[in-house]
Amino acid sequence: MAQSDTFTRWSVIASGEGGGRIASQFFDRTENPGIDDRILVMNTNRADLRNTIDRLSDQIQSEQNENEMMESHALEFGSQQGAGNFFPNGEACAREDLDRIVNRIKDLSTADAFMHVATLGGGTGNGSIPYAIDQFKRGLDDLDDEGAAEEWMDSVIHTAFGVWPYYYENPQRHFNAVCGLSRLLRTEDDQQNADMVLLAANSHLDQEENGGSRHYDSINDAIITAIDLMIGAGRETRSVIDVKDYVTIPSQMDAYHFTPAVATELNGDVYELEYMLDQAAENTYVPMDIGTTSAAYAIVRAPEAMIEEDVISEPDVYGAFRDWTGKHGINVAGQASLTPKRGRGSDVDVLLLLGGFDLNPLLDHSWDEFEMLGDSLAGQSRGDSADLSKAELGRLVENLEAYVEQNAG
């Protein structure tokens, strides 16, 4: 069997302006063999969707014009023009147009895994993505009068990448973020939602905290670098770590939230692998205590020539990962992988996926704002069909607190 037949095929589904901004930058890469052009950006606001398509058109070399790009890579959903920074509105829009969303995603039905992308401070992506994942995983039985429930969906793995707002942003965005994290992790009936939840925090990735599009682009590029490394590990036969490895054991442990930690362009002729892992660990995408990690994966990407000449080998990577976890006192369920990249140089890239860690250092930045707004927002209606009852808010809090307490280390 040709190796290409064994590749995991990913699709990216991004919702909201922030998610669309991240997705559009995928096209700035020379190649994404795990994704190709299987990217769908969704929004409730047509103007924001046009802005995303404009960015996407600037990045991709395509014969398609803007209208054709809208047709093939974009979806406007819901009858509201925007979610008003209130996540129940985003969910209501997704519920209203779930059949249209599913029919567009059918075009991506060759995918083995979805990467759902949303910024957690907003209303559109933060509202729609957790709801859509829940519906996809339930089998969409209520839509099969239109043929929407497809057998291929039963085996698709749903990962989600949620981006935390800047710490200085307004309390409403932190309220949304706490609710969004709870909804990505757990369904309303307290079952696992996304198969894997990846997290990044804007302020942690941008220590200057000055905001602005330049910083967003830099943060988004870091997110895409991590996703590229994660997906790339399943592209080759050398000690493959693939998406099923990422999700199976952590789900069984009920510890399936992760953050990337990345170091790139390290000189493989100079540095030891364990040092490279340490360098990556210093660049986690959220604030965390490494010692509370309960699931970890290490992906080392090295030039083909270095691997062929045995400068870096699979046993080297395994040994370095074992020594690294031992040195930090981390008793983890995890694996290590060596994957090649083109070229002969000596630049080595390292990705650590650290999971099941104590979430309190992240939540500490938002919990006061969340509690301050909780009573005032519960029971409000900010759209034709969107509201948030006190009982619903209570369930979100209970689900998140139970999950966090279990993974507090």
Can you give a write-up of this model?
- The relative contact order is 0.12.
- The chain has two domains: 9-234 and 364-406, Tubulin/FtsZ, GTPase domain (Rossmann fold); 260-360, 60s Ribosomal Protein L30, Chain: A (2-Layer Sandwich), CATH 3.30.1330.190.
- The chain is globular and about 60 Å long.
- 43% of the residues lie in helices and 18% in strands.
- Helix 1 (16-25) links the parallel strand 1 (10-15) and strand 2.
- It has helices spanning 16-25, 46-59, 66-73, 87-96, 98-105, 124-138, 171-185, 202-205, 213-232, 243-253, 273-281, 304-308, 314-327, 360-363, 367-377, 390-406, and strands at residues 10-15, 39-43, 74-76, 113-119, 157-164, 196-201, 257-267, 295-303, 333-341, 347-355.
- The longest helix is centred in the middle third of the chain and has 20 residues, at 213-232.
- The chain has 409 residues and is of the alpha/beta class.
Summary keywords:
alpha/beta; 16 helices; 60s Ribosomal Protein L30, Chain: A; 409 residues; Rossmann fold; 10 strands
Tally of contiguous helical segments: 16
The percentage helix is 40-55%
Mind telling me the C-alpha Rg? 21 Å
Sketch the topology as an H/E string, one letter per element: EHEHHEHHEHEHEHHHEHEHHEEHHH
By helix and strand content, what is the structural category? alpha/beta
- Gross geometry: globular
User: Can you tell me the CATH class of the largest domain?
Assistant: Alpha Beta
Secondary structure: number of strands: 10
Domain count: the total is 2
Q: Indicate the mean pLDDT.
A: 84
Distance separating the two termini: 44 Å
Strand content: 15-25%
Biggest β-sheet, characterized?
Answer: 10 strands, mixed
Read across the widest sheet, the strand sequence of neighbours is 3-2-1-4-5-6-7-10-8-9
